[in-house]
Amino acid sequence: MERISVMYHRKPGYDIVFTHSFDELPTELEAFECKGRKICIVTDSKVDEIYGEQLLGILGGCCKKVVKYAFPNGEKNKNLDTVREIYRFLIEEKFDRKDLLIALGGGVVGDTTGFVAATYLRGIDFIQIPTTLLAQADSSIGGKTGVDFDSYKNMVGAFKMPILVYMNLSTLTTLDERQYFSGFAEIMKHGLIKDSMFYEWLIENMYEICERDIKVLEEMLIRSCNVKKMVVEKDPTEQGDRALLNFGHTIGHAIEKAKNFELYHGECVALGAVAAAYISWKKELLSMDEYYEIRDMFVPFYLPISVDNIDPQEILKYTKSDKKMDSGRIKFVLLKKIGKAVIDQTVTDEEILAAINEINFSEEDAHA
Ligand code: GLY
């Protein structure tokens, strides 16, 4: 088992453990004196089917009482209605401030459960057990929690640090291809914004990553989580550098919304990353060769570099309703080189539209 400790405001925060089963969970929980506490596993219908009973069995012996709440799978349920249902369940089960929540699932489960943990009785401990690559690489670390509001992504939320992130890497073997590679986009992002050697390593290990070689996956996640740790330790509440993690997200979120969440988050991040790299080239931060290399490196990982039938004006409009604004200007994340991202507030509408056109694949292109 490997372990990374994440500091929070320069004080000891929480550990991320990397392992290959749920067997070490009871030992990990000993540090939190669970014998006198109730635990609620919050999960979704899909993950519940695979791991729900197993987790109930394992946790049964570690705490006063364990209960489970599963809500229907999917981004459309990451909302205040689900939060309300979880509050209701916790009240009925008489959960108090000393009790504990466990988020078992992907990003939707982690973000929603974390938000409940941040707000129920003004705050209750929670543990992240991420079961998707996206959640393991990104959303389970750093304490961003929240839900969507209408179709505005992550519009309501809070920072709430987990007390433990427990990664069972064997859960990655049950992911379908699309979901697995969607998560990989966030890993690629970490290399592109902060660590060129990691980026090179990803390319060198392309075959093993696509085949989900477990040893390579472990090294990949540890290196990726170390990038995220470094960023969130320096800037836990996104006053500065943490915004670099939004690389690919400004246009990515806009596409996600325009496509009515039919594309996966990581697929939209890949598209947004290509668009941001294109703007970086046009602003002469990146060379043309670097731009094409970045764009083409998403392809072997089954990630899209173009999308059909988007309306550039609609995407532009959505980029402006994104949270990543500062006094009315978009905080765009661009690349100065592979492994070095910068925040730029000078990107014009014309530059954004040109980038959207670059990734917009129309029927006409197909027949040209
Ligand atoms: N997913 C971006 C962040 O954690 O800041």
What's the level 1 CATH class of the largest domain?
Mainly Alpha
Q: Tell me about the biggest sheet?
A: 7 strands, mixed
CATH superfamily label of the largest domain = Dehydroquinate synthase-like - alpha domain
Strand content: 15-25%
CATH topology of the largest domain: Dehydroquinate synthase-like, alpha domain
The span between the termini is 53 Å
**Numbering strands along the chain, what is their spatial order in the largest sheet?**
1-2-9-6-5-3-4
Q: Could you say which overall geometry the principal axes of the C-alpha atoms support?
A: globular
Oligomer: single chain
Give a written overview of the molecule.
Strand 3 (38-44), helix 2 (45-60) and strand 4 form a beta-alpha-beta unit. The longest helix is centred in the middle third of the chain and has 21 residues, at 214-234. It contains 15 helices and 15 strands. Helix 10 (249-258) packs across helix 11. It is an alpha/beta fold. It has 2 domains: 2-174, 3-Layer(aba) Sandwich (Rossmann fold); 177-366, Up-down Bundle (Dehydroquinate synthase-like, alpha domain), CATH 1.20.1090. It has helices spanning 25-29, 45-60, 80-92, 107-119, 133-139, 177-194, 196-204, 206-210, 214-234, 249-258, 265-282, 288-297, 312-320, 349-359, 363-367; strands at 2-8, 11-19, 38-44, 65-71, 100-105, 125-130, 144-149, 152-159, 164-168, 307-308, 325-326, 329-330, 332-337, 340-344, 360-361. The strands form 5 sheets. A 7-stranded mixed sheet has the order 1-2-9-6-5-3-4, sandwiched between helices. Strands 7-8 form a two-stranded antiparallel ribbon. The model has no long low-confidence stretch (mean pLDDT 95). The protein is globular, with a radius of gyration of 20 Å. Glycine (GLY) binds next to loops.
